[in-house]
Amino acid sequence: MSRVSGQEGEARAVRPRRRVALALAAVAVLAAAAIAAFEAWDRWVAAPRRAERAFAVIRTDVPAPPFRQTTADGKSFSLADARGQVVFLNFWATWCPPCRDEMPSMLQLGWELAARHPGKFRMVAVSVDDGWDVVRDFFGGATPPGLTVTLDTDQLATRAYYCAARGACPDSFKFPETYIVDASGRLVAYVVGPRDWSDPAARAFLERIIGG
Question: In this structure, which CATH number among 3.90.1720.10, 3.40.190.10, 3.40.30.10, 3.30.70.100 belongs to the domain 58-211?
């Protein structure tokens, strides 16, 4: 009798230890899942937001102002022609040193994104110069491949985008300024001033919009 009772006592002692072990294992699994979820959130949500802030991207969400302008080769370009594509819309001038400085890294980014996302990305440079001669001279007589160049001599498109992005019209305009229009025709972000477009944050930001 005492032997049976002893075995029962040992069994009763083992059961709580098993419960504790199972509870600890469950806690470990939950902790691992929480860590994985945090790492995923940081990678896909928090880190991109930090990168955007560091690159000084200003988010907005308004209809992109429509416009139609003549391109360097005499053709017509309308924003509606690019529906279904993410449009990188850069307002610039040949007489603007920061505009000239950012142009090489901007072009390189445009080529890379267009190659990576065929048919989904378009880069447009809207010049506010007084005429085509200085623009053609700037590019050495030929527009860079993959870049649509238009002329906004009356600055109507410039004003439309400045006002739409800010919700109010400023007294004057400064260049360069870049606007991002998504595939549905919404103005979703803008960047004030020149940037080094080779910055990984720029590519990551645009990749998310193209992929989204």
Answer: 3.40.30.10
